Amino acid sequence: MWIVALALRRPYTFIVMALLILILSPVVIFRTATDIFPDIDIPVISVVWNYSGLSPKDMADHITSMTERGLTTLVNDIDHIDSQSLNGVAVVKIFFRPSANIQTALAQVTAISQTIIRQLPTGTTPPLVIQYSASSVPILQIGLSSKTLPEQQLNDVALNFLRTQLITVQGAAIPYPFGGKSRLVSVDIDTPALQAKHLSSVDVVNAISAQNLILPSGTAKLGDLEY
């Protein structure tokens, strides 16, 4: 009852306090951060592999299984692993214990992902490693369609233009677009003509690879000559 006695002795003080609360309440309400998702302290790292042309079974046998073996060998504080193999895509989710150091785990996952590339099918590119928590769920999906543009151009628009604008949104994690067709060069081989010249399809691949060169620019002075 002491607060009632204090209010009776100092009425103007409590009137001013009530006015301050009434004035400041809208400011505090509008500036208070809100989140509809509770904070679940379970760190998760996703490793997304892409290899166009492989069936889900081949992705599971040759990429997903190899990734899981490497992760369980060299990465610490793993709670469980959830994997999904799709057509040309393998998604491996690593759930860590709440006490895990996520920065160390991220470095370990990235390191083992780079190491096992030697054991994966030829031409496998490094994966996309995404870090998030269990409370971070995708809340927006964007689908692109066009009656005039082909799938290759839609893929270019999503990857090179739309994705670069969305990545600037605070807190957003934007993976590579799924679907569409990537630009590629197809070579039709005349097998009898190659065999007549004692060549194989591997020689054609090597010849194309040798022509795809990225040369450094600038000059180098060696002796009296400048190259």
What profile does the largest beta sheet have?
4 strands, antiparallel
H-E order: HHEHEEHEHHHEE
Give, in spatial order, the strands making up the sheet with the most strands: 2-3-1-4
> What is the class of the largest domain in the CATH system?
Alpha Beta
Nearest-angstrom radius of gyration?
29 Å
- Coarse structural class: alpha+beta
Supply the CATH architecture of the largest domain.
2-Layer Sandwich
What is the average per-residue confidence, as pLDDT, rounded to a whole number?
Answer: 82
Tell me what portion of residues adopts beta-strand conformation: 5-15%
N-C termini distance? 94 Å
Number of domains: 3
CATH overall fold name of the largest domain:
Alpha-Beta Plaits
Question: How would you describe this structure to a colleague?
Answer:
It is a single chain. Strand 5 and strand 6 form a beta hairpin. A four-stranded antiparallel sheet has the order 2-3-1-4. It has three domains: 2-31; 43-137, Alpha-Beta Plaits, CATH 3.30.70; 138-182, no CATH class. It is built from seven helices and six strands, in the order H-H-E-H-E-E-H-E-H-H-H-E-E. The protein is elongated, with a radius of gyration of 29 Å. Helix 3 (56-74) packs across helix 4 (102-115). It is α+β, with helices and mostly antiparallel strands.
List the helices and strands and how they pair.
Elements lengths: L1 H8 L1 H21 L11 E8 L5 H19 L3 E8 L3 E8 L5 H14 L12 E6 L17 H16 L24 H6 L4 H11 L9 E2 L2 E2 L1
Helix pairs in contact: 3-4
